[in-house]
TrEMBL record:
Record protein name field: Methyltransferase type 11 domain-containing protein
PANTHER family for the chain: JUVENILE HORMONE ACID O-METHYLTRANSFERASE, METHYLTRANSFERASE
Coiled coil residues, start to end: none
Gene3D superfamilies xrefs: Vaccinia Virus protein VP39
GO MF assignments: polyprenyldihydroxybenzoate methyltransferase activity
CDD domains: AdoMet_MTases
One Gene Ontology term from the biological process aspect of the record: methylation
Keywords of the record: Methyltransferase, S-adenosyl-L-methionine, Transferase
Length: 150
């Protein structure tokens, strides 16, 4: 998710990927009625949006992202961690939160949750916030059942 667009611009400039970048041009919670409805992606990157949503909105948000991923596609989430104890800023996300939200029960294959950092304006918290980087795959479509008798 975009903010100033730095991640999107970097990826578009330095890779051969085509990028759709989303911020408050529409509410991601209403993705299915947005101008991008129906498009699907190999990779979705959430940099700093999940932690802006209250816990009740997070499962529906991630379910919407799962629908826009192609089977086998990967979601990366960078979210401010509960290990960040500086005052203020958005709400925090724990490792357990991410493991639950991106669990097999929620339809994901969680690849990892790693301690990371979120780069901020140098005047805010010294330019860094403690974060988690999580990667999870939408499972690839199940192989079609073998024809009867084989
Ligand atoms: C904390 S900023 C992160 C910005 C940038 N991605 C980064 O990594 O620095 C969160 C961004 O999410 C956007 N945002 C928050 N809730 C949103 C929603 N429901 N739909 C679309 N964008 C949203 C905000 O406008 C803001 O730009």
């Amino acid at each position: 998710m975009t903010g100033s667009g730095d991640n999107s611009l970097f990826i578009a400039k330095y890779t051969s990927c085509s990028v759709d970048a989303v911020d408050l041009c529409f509410d991601v919670l209403t993705w299915d009625s947005s101008p991008l409805a129906g498009r699907t992606y190999d990779v979705v990157l959430d940099s700093g949006l999940l932690h802006c949503l209250g816990p009740p909105a997070r499962p529906a948000y991630l379910a919407a992202l799962q629908r826009v991923l192609k089977p086998g596609g990967t979601l990366y989430v960078l979210a401010l961690s509960d290990k960040e104890t500086s005052p203020g800023g958005p709400s925090r996300v724990s490792r357990e939160d991410l493991e639950g939200l991106l669990s097999p029960a929620a339809g994901w294959e969680l690849q990892y949750v790693k301690p990371h950092f979120w780069e901020l304006h140098p005047t805010f918290w010294g330019g860094k916030g403690r974060a988690y980087l999580a990667a999870a795959q939408r499972p690839a479509a199940a192989a079609p059942a073998a024809p009867a008798g084989q």
